[in-house]
Amino acid sequence: MEYDLDGMDVLFVAGFGPITQSTAASRDFYVAALGLPLKPMPGNEAYLLTEHDALGGVKHFALWPLAQAARSCFDADSWPDYLPVPQAWIEFEVRDIDSATDALKARGYRLLVDNRIEPWGQTVTRLLSPEGLLAGITVTPVAARGQSMMAAELMTERLLLIPLTADDAPQIQVLFPQWGIVRYLAAGFPWPFPEDGASRYVNSVALPAAANGTAWFWTIRLKTAPERVIGLITLSDEVDNNRGFWLDPRWHRQGLMTEACRRVTDFWFNTLNREVLRAPKACDNSGSKKISHRSGMRLIRVEKKQFICGLLDAELWEITKAEWNALAAQAPASHRVTGC
């Protein structure tokens, strides 16, 4: 049943959960004592959540740290003293968020977030309920329309980073199967590359992950030739594998991938609000290592792994959000991330 009162057309409860002030204490209660299937979000270990529809009675259940709720509402690490501290959050999916937001304003409610589009495609308005819940009304592409949650278009000085679509598969199929691109991929990757490899990857791997909100994919294009794909760059919530990329070798050694990595890394930390980024690579992949080194990452682990080109040392590089933002603040103006 749907209720439509003066533009407030609520479809269902989209999510609910406590707002925590001690991750350890809340984990002990909800996971150890109650046995709820909560897992930390990769890159944001204090945010504990269930898989979609994994807990009966709610589509999404999560423990949201108060500091993160404060950042979402006020872009600050602490909840303001002049407002009651919320003990829980709840979100309601609505049919039309513009009408629903206007309806709340017409009734005199004070909004903390006003009709904002989040990086994962959800649009949200937030306010405190009379009981002190941090309430939200939302429109989520997957829930409301069955469409993929795609990453936003990003730009650098020379590049357009355009969200991946099924229409990009033919260009990828032609461009991708080059030894200079594939040799440092994990040995389990299909090689030689199948004739339908790009289509299968885009439609069966990438777009479903994007729709689930666990990965983000961009085609890399020159601003001077926006119709032409020259590479791909991705972000993922996969453990110890948060960023990956490839570029047509004809465009190597021009600093293009450094530009692209700088932009999506900032997106990872300051739009998706992740706390750490880790990127694996083959030790012999000198170009990728240079990009990691230039961006302030550090080597944290080395182990043997099988790649398409053979058995090599595999390195894991890491940088935290605090480290990234500190470096960004010191960067020359030409290297700072701005705009979309």
From TrEMBL:
It comes from the Bacteria. Keywords: Acyltransferase, Transferase. Residues 158-298 form the N-acetyltransferase domain. Pfam families: Acetyltransf_3. GO terms for molecular function: acyltransferase activity, transferring groups other than amino-acyl groups. Belongs to the acetyltransferase family. RimJ subfamily. This is Glyoxalase family protein. It comes from Klebsiella grimontii.
